[in-house]
Structures are given as structure tokens and as C-alpha cells.
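Work Package 4 report. The design task specified in the project plan requires that, given a folded chain encoded as C-alpha cells, an amino acid be chosen for each position. We show below one input record used in the internal validation round.
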């Protein structure tokens, strides 16, 4: 593509993203999406129920259809799975509450929330864990495949530190009927992990250890695999080194650690990755997306060798995993 075409393509991408965001917000504000929860409707029925005009309603529905928010069949429109997830989850506003704080962040460098604060993290992540499980399910499946679960790998005992919904570890265990998961997180967050295990039919293979993963007592040399999923970006360098050392002590000889986080490497994920880093500044005091070399150095210091970065080529194309083996 020539430079001129590239510029035009980027212009249309930006214009379309902006327009789509406005259409989605107005569909929420006007009551269109809430009305469609009741079932499929035509444009005229929807306009009448929401007390808005039919012509712009029809145009809005066409745009929402193209966006994948509604699906139109024979002049009747219904909500898609995407819309139902948005309406029923914690991300229905697409993070507007954070992005509205951006001017203040630029002026003060102070976040809206402190999700990396010990006193605040439990309440924040209880509400987000279920949505994150939905978002990261394809990445978890790709990771389980890359690690060989269900094929060549038989890492029986999995430790999931800062487990959240435990989607990473439970997706692996679902492929190997002999695998068990021990999830460590705040009590309220572990309720989400328990729900995930029940949904997967793995409730009998999940053990929960409630509390701060820097402090919870972990058995020594008891696990084959330790997972840090979406954890490192919330920790300081010292905090990451501590939890890595604790993971190392908990692993058997030859055990592995897997870090899931936002990593560079997939161009399709560049926008998501950079927005994620900015979003961290909006909702944490000191959250940081670490460079792979920084995490490799910390892993080496914690007693791990030969760290390997593996892309997960599924949406959002910004999440990857770093795998390292416990050194002798």
C-alpha cells in the first residue's frame, strides 16, 4: 500500500472508530439496547417503544448491525452475544469512566482508581474477573494448546497466583483429567474462580487459598506449573521478584512458570497494547507494562532459566506468555 493510501486508510479507521463509539453510546442512552433485551423488534417497534423517530432508528440499527452489536433478519433486529455480554457485564460503558479521567491524568498524573492498592484491589477485581474470563477465553485456549495440554504435557498440579477467574489454569486442567488447580486470590475474587470451575465441570479439582499472594503460605516443591496471569503489570519490580521467588520455591524440580500479560510482537495488537498501558495509568498508582527483557531478568534472579516469549495469535493480539523453567 502506498503512503497516500495508508494515510487514507488510517483516516477512515479513526473516523469509523469514533463514529461507532458514538453510535454505541447513543444506543445505550436512548434505551434501544435495553429494549432489545425483551426480544427481536423491527425499527418501527423499537422507535415506538423508545419514543424516538423511526428513520434515524433504522439508520442506527444498520450501523449497529455492521458493528456486530445487533443482528438483523427480515427487518427484525436482535441483540448479539457481544451486546448481551456488554449489557450484562462491567464493561457496558467501554471504560468511559476511566477515559473521562484522561484530562485530569494529563494535568496531575493521578489515577482515577488504585486497583494496584492492597486495600482496593479485591473490590475492583471481583467485578472485573468474570468479564476478563470472557475476554481472555480464546487466549487461554491458545495458551493451553501451545503448552501441550491435552497432547504432550502432563503437568498435573497447577498453582495460579492472583488467579482472578482462573480461566488460564482451569482451561489447561479441562484438557487433562488428572490435573488439579490451586488458586490464590482475595476471597471475593475466588468466588468467581469457583464459578468458572463449576461452569467447566472442574469444581472437584479446584482448591482455593484466600489472601494476599505475597503472604499466603504455599507448600514447597508441590507444583508442576505456576501461573502469573495479568499480575506482573500491577506489581513493582520488587513485588514481581518476590512473587516469582515464591513461585520458584513452590515448584518441583523441572517445574515451569508461565507469565501472561501484554507483550509486544503482534502488530495487530499494537493499538490495544498501547491503550492498555494508558488505561493502567488511569486505574492504578504505579501499574506498568514491563518489557520482556525486564521480566526475563527478574525471572533469572528468581531462579528460572531460558525464558521464552510466545505470542497468542487471537484477539486482542496483545496478550502473550513468557515461559521459563525452574533452574537447578
Amino acid at each position: 500500500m502506498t503512503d497516500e493510501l495508508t494515510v487514507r486508510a488510517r483516516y477512515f479507521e479513526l473516523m469509523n472508530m469514533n463514529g461507532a463509539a458514538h453510535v454505541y453510546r447513543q444506543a445505550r442512552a436512548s434505551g434501544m439496547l435495553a429494549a432489545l433485551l425483551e426480544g427481536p423488534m423491527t425499527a418501527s417497534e423499537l422507535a415506538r417503544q423508545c419514543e424516538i423517530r423511526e428513520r434515524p432508528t433504522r439508520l442506527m440499527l444498520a450501523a449497529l448491525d455492521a458493528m456486530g452489536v445487533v443482528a438483523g433478519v427480515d427487518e427484525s433486529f436482535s441483540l448479539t452475544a457481544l451486546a448481551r455480554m456488554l449489557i450484562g457485564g462491567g464493561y457496558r460503558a467501554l471504560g468511559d469512566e476511566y477515559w473521562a479521567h484522561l484530562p485530569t491524568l494529563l494535568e496531575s498524573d493521578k489515577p482515577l482508581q488504585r486497583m494496584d492498592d492492597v486495600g482496593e484491589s479485591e473490590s475492583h477485581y471481583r467485578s472485573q474477573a468474570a468479564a476478563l474470563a470472557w475476554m481472555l477465553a480464546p487466549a487461554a485456549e491458545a495458551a493451553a494448546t501451545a503448552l501441550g495440554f491435552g497432547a504432550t504435557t502432563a503437568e498435573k498440579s497447577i498453582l495460579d497466583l492472583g488467579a482472578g477467574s482462573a480461566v488460564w489454569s482451569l482451561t489447561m486442567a479441562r484438557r487433562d483429567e488428572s490435573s488439579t488447580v490451586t488458586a490464590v486470590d482475595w476471597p471475593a475474587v475466588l468466588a468467581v474462580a469457583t464459578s468458572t470451575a463449576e461452569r467447566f465441570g472442574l469444581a472437584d479439582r479446584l482448591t482455593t487459598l484466600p489472601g494476599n499472594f505475597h503472604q499466603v503460605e504455599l507448600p514447597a516443591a508441590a507444583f508442576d506449573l505456576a501461573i502469573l496471569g495479568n499480575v506482573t503489570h500491577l506489581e513493582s519490580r520488587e513485588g514481581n521478584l518476590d512473587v516469582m521467588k515464591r513461585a520458584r520455591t513452590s515448584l518441583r524440580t523441572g517445574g515451569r512458570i508461565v507469565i501472561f500479560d501484554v507483550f509486544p510482537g503482534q502488530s495487530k495488537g499494537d493499538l490495544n497494547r498501547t491503550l492498555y498501558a494508558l488505561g493502567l495509568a488511569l486505574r492504578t498508582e504505579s501499574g506498568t507494562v514491563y518489557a520482556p527483557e525486564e521480566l526475563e531478568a527478574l525471572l533469572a534472579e528468581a531462579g528460572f532459566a531460558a525464558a521464552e516469549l510466545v505470542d497468542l495469535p487471537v484477539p486482542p493480539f496483545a496478550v502473550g506468555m513468557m515461559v521459563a523453567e525452574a533452574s537447578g
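The chain has a mean pLDDT of 92. Validation will be extended to a larger panel in the next phase.
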